Every structure is written in C-alpha cells, then in structure tokens.
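An instance as discussed:

___
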Amino acid sequence: MVVKKKIELSPEQLTWLRQAYKDRLHPEQMAAHLECHVDTVKRLLDRHGIRIALSSKHITTDQPPPQWNRPCNMCRCTESRPKFQYTCNRCKSHTRDLHHVHEDFHAY
C-alpha cells in the first residue's frame, strides 16, 4: 500500500473548493479538478471546515455522552450512567476490587 503525502491546497484551490461545495458540485468532480481521490476531497472539506460530516468516525464533541437509567446487571439499581454501560459504578468498582484487576485494564 502506497501512502501519499498530505495534500496542501493553495489559497486559490481552497477558494475554488469552497465555491464548488457551495455550488453543490459532486465530490467526484472536485476530485477530478484537484487530481486526487474522492476520499481525499472529503477529508479536505472536513479539515478546512467547509463541511461537517455527521457520519465521520472521528467527530469530537463537547457534549456529554447520552445517559440512561437502565437497571444495573448486578444490583438492579437505576442510577443514571452513560448509555451502554450495563453495570453501575459501584458494582463495577466492587467487581474490579474482587478480581484485583488493574484499573487501566478496564475501558470504562
């Protein structure tokens, strides 16, 4: 696999890219104009803040994760905790202590 060097756009190319995005030009047409891959165009649009891809896997946000009150798998309490955390913090720490597992080992 060949990894190419990061593309740096000139100010003129960046202006063109912004206008092309406003004009709703298809990413394949933008890629042909910039002589790069379609995925590279999408990354350039994201990197320069021209578009915000809501499906990007590397989106960062300042908002806290969604919470839920699902019953804990161990004690059945319904305290609020991050969604998809199935065990409450108390049971989780208690289980960690019981098994003498180092805290860095647990992802959550």
